[in-house]
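pasting for ref
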Amino acid sequence: MSFIEEIKIRAKQDKKTIVLPESMDRRVLEAADTILKEDIANLIIIGNKEEISKEAQGLDISKAVVIDPWQAEMTEELINELVNLRKHKGMTYDEAKKLLLEDYMYYACMLVKTKRADGVVSGACHSSSNTLRPALQIIKTKPGVELVSAFFLMIVPECDYGEKGTFIFADAGLEQNPTPERLAAIAASSAETFKMLIQKEPLVAMLSHSTMGSAKHADVDKVVEAVNIAKRNYSQYKIDGELQLDAAIVPEVAKMKAPNSEVAGRANVLIFPDLDAGNIGYKLVQRLAKAEAYGPICQGIAVPINDLSRGCSSSDIVGVVAITAVQAQNNI
């Protein structure tokens, strides 16, 4: 059984309600058809009912709850609630109304905020900033978490590395150039996420173009400092570095380059030094190794709000909805 099939089974055991605000995208409706048929989650789809019905021809989404913000009785309540949440930023009634009626991601986040839903999946036809801005404004970070970051769940076929080919790559979707403190926090969040989703021990490698002092550069210094912070502040996890990619995942290389590391050669959580490296890394593995790539999935938000790649397929959306549902079960 594949990993994502196992996630779907877990999602079914305690069904959550997930909001899909991009009703204008056929891929989202195709995914909704599959999610409802497989009974993975309850769905709320936001949009005009007639337009959705037209776009969904040939699909069965009859079990989904469709909410048209222009017609729904709850809209007035949500407008007033948004004004209350953002009044310290000068939010007016008219501004809140415009946001909720014209940007369905804001409406989706308000459904979660008012406990009408458990999570949101968006981004198939919107940028990451359009997806995450409302979440950060309305839902905010989980208590005790330093920052929101994003990871990709990578499943590499016929691969002996990582956890039987399964990895978390972070941050590959949000943090542009994290400081050592933020890089350490990303490592800790990713370890927690790996343990929850994969249900195996996380082994976290802080990646660099250097292994254990083999190169000298300010970029290497940043990773070294992040490792020291992580070991000091998050000692419950096995986190080590700085490690080159081969030293992190290949046992034979690890024996030569980092023989004293308890992570080297066995890493299943890969922490990239910046967003450029993370984004390039996941796309290389996805395209050249034909890996499944689910994400960017957020960690650190109080309620799971997850982004999609605009190049996603309907099956990718199904997978991210299943992951979001399991996150909601565990409130990660």
